[in-house]
Amino acid sequence: MEGVRGPESRWSWVEVNLAALRRNTAAFKKRLERGVQMMCVVKADAYGHGAAPCAKTMHAAGASQFAVATVAEGVALREAGIEWPILILSEPPVDCVRTLVEYDLMPAVYTADFALALGEAAASVERVARYHLALDTGMTRIGVRREDAVELRRTIDFHRGLECAGTFTHFATADMLDDWDFALQLNRFTETIEALYGAGLDTGLVHCDNTPGTILHPECHFDMCRVGVGLYGLHPAETTYGQIDLEPVMSVRGRVVRVIYPNVGDGVGYGLTWRVPKKNVQVATVPIGYADGLARELSNQMDVLVDGTRCRQVGNICMDQFMFAVDVNTTRSYRPTRPVEYGDVVTILGADGKECITAEEMAGLRNTINYEVVCDFGMRLEKIYT
Ligand SMILES: *Cc1c(COP(=O)(O)O)cnc(C)c1O
User: Fold this and answer.
1) 197: Cβ–Cβ under 8 A, 6 or more apart, which residues?
2) Residue 194 class from Cβ within 10 Å (0-12 exposed, 13-18 middle, 19+ buried)?
3) Contact 137, 189 (CB under 8 A)
4) Percent of the chain scored above 90 by pLDDT?
5) Which atom of ligand 1 is nearest to the CA of 41?
6) What percent of the chain has pLDDT over 70?
7) What are the φ/ψ torsions at residue 328 (nearest 5 degrees)?
8) Per-residue b or e along 26-47, where b marks 16 or more CB atoms closer than 10 Å to that residue's CB
9) Distance from C-alpha of 140 to C-alpha of 163, rounded to nearest angstrom
10) How far is the CA of 195 from the centre of ligand 1 (A)?
11) To 5 degrees, how large is the angle CA 272–CA 275–CA 277?
């Protein structure tokens, strides 16, 4: 609806660079040997980037399967017309087995009760439900304990409504180099796969590598890699820097909705945590706040870019707005070439000219990881695909 959605109605938005997403996806696909599939992880609305448009772009660049965290995320992808295989990365509540069958979503499975309920739901409509067996090889999160894997399969395999389409595990330390715990998990995984083969059981696709695993551990690509954060142009850790070329996909921008020259000593924002120190300082307002994913702990810490120049954010970040200061007379690193005006574009995340605010910079200020920074911006801001 004109004027209600998009930046015409609110001067703040997320830009998603689908061309960069396509290049990142192709860069990962190129690393996989022929026959190794790429499962793109689009949970949490594609880490805040918008699941359906991202999935379509990824598929065009070589992805053949997709993974989400929740049943609702899987259903949303189906309703957006995504017809490729979708894995739910954990075992959902048993009450949704009919939904899984109806929408052809593959759950992770690790309990017999859930598996048999799924099989019943499928058999009752003359279908076969495909699932992936999840193995806990040492992360202590989800999955069947490796020593119980063969027995679980033997308990459920009789069911005509079930088909094992994959067997996987997840690494806790794939981003570390020469890590003993990683080696241990990988050993346990291969041993369990061999035990399943030895018992005459079909494992389906064998997979374990996430983004850092895919980059640093090609020896365990097996049949498929589950790539997430790297697709969005973010490195999972410093250990992958220089190992693959990635372009950040998300930028966050807004426009100045108000700007004044306050009096010296005037306070800014809730609690008046910043005060105007001298004359000729502008304070400008941008309509993005913590309900849009701009974490409040960034208050009085972060910079924004105007015309490729850094400006300091000042005052506590509000729910829907924040303020920044422009010291019109500064000459060092904060160096505005001109006063800010109503309507000026402000970059909160991403590049502007030669300057760039990275998700890593923001994560450092928040004491978190780049993953959380981009997920958070998915909350409320409109997305523009370029
Ligand atoms: C989130 C997730 C991934 C993707 O992880 P990245 O580090 O973003 O590549 C892969 N597998 C599982 C089970 C996950 O939960």
Assistant:
1) 203
2) exposed
3) yes
4) 94
5) 4
6) 96
7) -65, -20
8) ebbbebbeeebbbbbbbbbbbb
9) 25
10) 25
11) 175
Report the distance separating Cα 373 and Cα 348, nearest Å. 12
Q: Helix 18-31 vs helix 51-60: angle between axes, to the nearest 10 degrees?
A: 50
What is the tally of helices (H) and strands (E) in the chain? 11, 21
Left (φ > 0), alpha (ψ -120 to 50) or beta: where does 182 sit? alpha
CB-defined site of ligand 1, < 6 Å: 41, 43, 89, 170, 210-211, 226-229, 236
**What's the distance, CA 217 to chain centroid?**
21
Span 296-353, pLDDT tens digits: 999 999 999 999 989 999 999 999 999 999 986 665 556 666 899 999 999 999 999 9
User: Are residues 216 and 202 in contact, defined by beta-carbon separation less than 8 angstroms?
Assistant: no
**Which two tokens mark 278?**
């001298």
Nearest to 123 by CA among 134, 133, 115: 115
* 210-229 mean pLDDT: 98
Q: Report the run of H or E that residue 224 belongs to, with start and end.
A: strand 224-227
243 alpha-carbon distance from chain centroid: 20
d(C-alpha 98, C-alpha 120), whole Å: 9
Long-range contact set of residues 352-359: C-beta below 8 Å, sequence gap at least 24: 352/305, 352/306, 352/307, 352/308, 353/305, 353/307, 353/308, 353/309, 354/308, 355/305, 355/308, 355/309, 355/310, 356/305, 357/302, 357/303, 357/304, 357/305, 358/248, 359/234, 359/248, 359/250
Active-site residues, by number, are: 43, 270
Instruction: Enumerate the β-bridge partners of residue 384.
Output: 15
Interval between CA 165 and ligand 1 midpoint (Å) = 19
